[in-house]
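Morning. Coffee machine broken again, so started the prediction first thing and wrote up yesterday's gels while waiting. Chain of 109 residues, entered below exactly as on the submission form.
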Amino acid sequence: MSDPSVEDVERFNTEQLINFLRTKNLNLNITDYKKIRDERVAGSDFLQLTREILRAEPYKFPDGPARRVATFVNNLNSQSKFYHKIVYLYASRVIQQTSFKAVIFVIFT
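Came back before lunch.
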């Protein structure tokens, strides 16, 4: 059975999320799962977590689990079709702006 898509994870409730995380090799302990449960983190919340958020109140994760979870979240988000579209649009805009600035620079030098 394949992993759920990021869109599926986004719809998880807290218990579904915890069950999903238990199947991953994140080396989280009971306390880590309890923090997720106590804060009622659902899938859509989970996909917004960063290392900084996990290290701060109310989670206070140790650095190791915070890094592992944040990396996992980034990996999940990078699988999203929406994420790829945003990255493409951003890259296209940067290229357009850079080219435009280069043209202006050439004209005024």
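The chain has two domains: 1-78, 81-109. Going to sketch it on the whiteboard this afternoon.
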